[in-house]
Design a protein that fits this description.
Elements: H1 12-29, H2 38-43, H3 48-58, H4 64-74, H5 82-112, H6 120-128, H7 140-156
Helix pairs in contact: 1-3, 3-5, 5-6, 5-7
């Protein structure tokens, strides 16, 4: 469905919505089929789009494209039945939304300091990204736990994102 759209490329939200719809159809059809089964893998562009689709359902204000590079490195297909994988993906969507809320808090802290700019969100995510130099896929929970911990520290010292030194360093 996504590759047949020749008029224009779909944005991340549209791709995630379509992937989630396909995923739910497959879940209803064969809940015990493994998520990494060839038919599932072939039907979806990538696994992280399902997680993003679930997150978009809960929060339409999510900047999913800003997180996509991280998700590609840590959110692959799972070797568990679809019914179980769906629950895991819901948890991952919650963790993604938690990280997005932390990014927003750091943005607000930068605004309060008069240091916000239009690309601040991407700069914050890049700073907190634990997969920057990783060459192989990482664990989703470990990756997002590290990212959320970094973002929590940044809420207190947001100027670090801008490369400014903090007085107590």
């Amino acid at each position: 469905m996504m590759s047949l759209n020749v008029e224009q490329n779909l944005n991340i939200r549209e791709r995630a919505t379509i992937a989630l719809s396909i995923y739910r159809d497959m879940l209803a059809e064969a809940p015990r089929r493994s998520e990494d089964h060839g038919e599932v893998v072939d039907s979806l562009e990538t696994a992280h789009l399902v997680t993003l689709g679930l997150a978009y359902e809960r929060s339409g204000r999510l900047a999913g494209g800003a997180f996509e590079a991280i998700l590609k490195k840590c959110d692959g297909f799972l070797d568990v039945p679809l019914e179980q994988a769906y629950q895991v993906r819901q948890g991952r969507a919650s963790k993604l939304l938690e990280a997005a809320a932390k990014v927003k808090a750091v943005e607000e802290a930068l605004k309060a300091r008069g240091a916000w700019h239009s690309m601040a969100r991407y700069q914050i995510i890049s700073y907190a990204n634990p997969t920057k130099r990783a060459r192989k896929p990482g664990d989703f929970d470990r990756t997002f736990d590290k990212m959320i911990a970094t973002l929590e520290k940044l809420e207190e010292t947001p100027q670090k994102v801008l490369g400014e030194r903090v007085a107590d360093e």
